[in-house]
Amino acid sequence: MENIILCQSCGLPLGNEEIKGKEKNGLKNDLYCKYCYEDGMFTKPNMTIEDMKDIVSTQMKKLKLPIYTIQKAINILPSLSRWKNK
């Protein structure tokens, strides 16, 4: 089974370099996607896990994904680095 690296903020798969966020020096960050992390910092630093759950749910609904897939994605969030100790 293939190891899939997920954004440690939103859970988006980081399967290609284009989706990865960047550090201040322009290098790609291997932990976070470009939607969550840019220029060496979180794009929404004051976001709560509840905010993230709403965003993930809304974006996945726009893609017309099944509710069980959406729920699984939301259930993963508390285990990600950004939220683990909050």
Query: Which strands sit side by side, in order, in the main sheet?
Result: 1-2
Work out the radius of gyration: 13 Å
Beta-strand percentage range: 15-25%
The ordered H/E elements are EEEEHH
Number of helices: 2
The portion of residues assigned to helices is 25-40%
Q: What is the CA-CA span between the terminal residues?
A: 30 Å
Provide the structure class: alpha+beta
Give a quick precis of the structure.
It comes from Flavobacterium fructosi. The protein is α+β, with helices and mostly antiparallel strands.
Would you spell out the secondary-structure blueprint of this structure?
Blueprint (H helix, E strand, L loop, with lengths): L19 E3 L5 E6 L3 E2 L2 E2 L6 H14 L4 H10 L10
Helix pairs in contact: 1-2
Walk me through the structure.
It is a single chain. The chain is an alpha+beta fold. Helix content is about 30%, strand content about 15%. It has helices at about 50-60, 65-75, and strands spanning about 20, 30-35, 35-40, 40. A hairpin with a 2-residue loop joins strand 3 and strand 4 (about 40). The longest helix has 14 residues, at about 50-60. The relative contact order is 0.19. This is Zinc ribbon domain-containing protein. InterPro entries: Zn_ribbon_dom_put.
